[in-house]
Write a structure and sequence with these properties.
Layout: H1 6-11, H2 22-25, H3 38-45, H4 55-58, H5 66-74, H6 78-86, H7 92-98, H8 105-108, H9 120-134, E1 149-153, H10 157-168, E2 172-176, H11 185-188, H12 197-210, E3 213-215, H13 226-230, E4 235-238, E5 244-245, E6 258-260, H14 261-269, E7 289-293, H15 297-308, E8 313-317, H16 329-338, E9 341-343, E10 346-354, E11 357-371, E12 377-381, E13 387-390, E14 393-396, E15 400-401, H17 405-409, E16 435-437, H18 440-443, H19 448-468
Parallel strand pairs: 1-2, 1-4, 2-3, 4-16, 6-14, 7-8, 7-14, 8-9
Antiparallel strand pairs: 5-15, 10-11, 11-12, 11-13
Helix pairs in contact: 3-5, 3-9, 5-6, 5-9, 6-9, 7-9, 10-19, 14-15, 15-16
Amino acid sequence: MSPLTRRDRRELPRTEMPERVPNERAHSFEEVNLGFTSKLAVLEAQRCLLCPRPKCVEGCPVGVRIDEFVRHVAAGDFGAAAATISADNSLPAICGRVCPQENQCEGACVLVRKGRPIAIGHLERFVADFSRTHRLEAEPPAPKKTGKKVAVVGSGPAGLACAFDLIRAGHDVTVFEALHELGGVLVYGIPEYRLPKAVVAAEIGRLSELGVTFVTNAPIGLAETLDELMERFDAIFVGVGAGLPMFLEIEGEHLVGVYSANEFLTRVNLMRAYLDGAATPIHPVSGKRVAVIGGGNTALDAVRTALRLGAADAAIVYRRTESEMPARSEEIRHAREEGVRFEFLTSPIEFVGADGRLQSMRVVRMELGPPDGEGRPRPVPVAGSEVEVPVDVVIVAAGNAPNPLLRKNTPSLRHGSRGTIEADPRTGRTSMRGVFAGGDIVTGGATVILAMGAGRRAAASIDEYLQTGAWEPVPRPLAD
């Protein structure tokens, strides 16, 4: 058969990933997306136009050579595709599932003008899964040991990406995790039906095989300070994320039945709090009316989780319209298909209860006004539109802030007004010699892949510092 021309490739339809049907998945924690088969992956990869200057690579925060790995998939060489991805991405099976490709690599694809960019995320997921199940990748040769030791604080995406690059550079790496399970937000924040725990464990297992040491139940800043760590390590990377939930600061948030999304998802994902006899139970959700306040991916995770726990009614309450929602379009579509209701242009102003328990909430209707500082239309309350609606459980997904533990116990580490660590965005260097930081603890809540990009940049800077001893701290003042 003659090779496909560029015009032929342009005309091929985008290959959609198989999914579980909505009425099955809405009550199951089994993964929703089923993944490409080999045939579907090759078919989709053949749509690539083989651009001489691939913009998709520029759109990838960790710089994966997307054009090369897609070309390998199109040729059926999945081993070469896996090796290409792994050169730049230590967590491909995770990124292929949860990264917002539509705003990054796929958003930069030239075929986006036709509304049919290459399904880069689906292909990355396929390659990672195929490589893992068929054990395609050979163990890389052990790097020459440098004798230098690095502590990585936090086992989320920033810390794992940093550890991956540092261990391959020949340094000894120890990762400290505050909780009893590794993975950070990947395990406590993202539900099983989007990111199976077995996938996270397998990706972390690869790091263990490379020689990374992991220590759990180790909240740095409490069990041991950064100053104490520096007595044992040559450098430190802080990638603890931003796990402190933010609330709306309205009346009634203390009532039983009102949760932060962080607490709700952590109890469900990490502690199985919905099971009978759970050590950290949650307010009954089955048969109840549940409202989730917010419009991001965390809000969608919380409302779809509530649905799977048997909620009689599960609704997103969002103060703007759907077009302003920061959540991924795929997650919004999945939620709607599963039966989630959306109450747009609505904002709670009070939670109402009796005997300390939530019974209802007062909401006000909103209208969109002039843009705010981020360029999104600012929601403005409509006078006289307040109503009270019955609700049994409220989950607030209004964002997260950094935990103040490190700030309180490390006065020499400079922080911004929002509690984030001040760090050079190019190098991750902080005000404290030998200490680097990246991910949500520096930027505030962002995406998995952006945190990984920060971890990789910091790893390169740590490697340079360990080789040269040269230190240029974060400049001051730094924009907060």
